[in-house]
């Protein structure tokens, strides 16, 4: 989806992200896998932002 967005639009977006990269589908998948795992068995009712600490 982002491949169609011009570089001039993406670069300012990346500048507002402390990790200096756009999120990938794997980033969302990794969060989901963690929340579905036994390691997250004590987590209830949380909002998990997978956003690279992006600022508006």
TrEMBL record:
<dbReference type="InterPro" id="IPR036291">
    <property type="entry name" value="NAD(P)-bd_dom_sf"/>
</dbReference>
<keyword id="KW-0443">Lipid metabolism</keyword>
<keyword id="KW-0576">Peroxisome</keyword>
<keyword id="KW-0521">NADP</keyword>
<keyword id="KW-0444">Lipid biosynthesis</keyword>
<dbReference type="InterPro" id="IPR002347">
    <property type="entry name" value="SDR_fam"/>
</dbReference>
<keyword id="KW-0597">Phosphoprotein</keyword>
<keyword id="KW-0560">Oxidoreductase</keyword>
<keyword id="KW-0275">Fatty acid biosynthesis</keyword>
<dbReference type="GO" id="GO:0019166">
    <property type="term" value="F:trans-2-enoyl-CoA reductase (NADPH) activity"/>
</dbReference>
<dbReference type="Pfam" id="PF13561">
    <property type="entry name" value="adh_short_C2"/>
</dbReference>
<comment type="subunit">
    <text>Interacts with PEX5, probably required to target it into peroxisomes.</text>
</comment>
<keyword id="KW-0276">Fatty acid metabolism</keyword>
<comment type="pathway">
    <text>Lipid metabolism.</text>
</comment>
<comment type="function">
    <text>Participates in chain elongation of fatty acids. Catalyzes the reduction of trans-2-enoyl-CoAs of varying chain lengths from 6:1 to 16:1, having maximum activity with 10:1 CoA. Has no 2,4-dienoyl-CoA reductase activity.</text>
</comment>
<dbReference type="InterPro" id="IPR052388">
    <property type="entry name" value="Peroxisomal_t2-enoyl-CoA_red"/>
</dbReference>
<protein>
    <recommendedName>
        <fullName>Peroxisomal trans-2-enoyl-CoA reductase</fullName>
        <ecNumber>1.3.1.38</ecNumber>
    </recommendedName>
</protein>
<dbReference type="GO" id="GO:0006633">
    <property type="term" value="P:fatty acid biosynthetic process"/>
</dbReference>
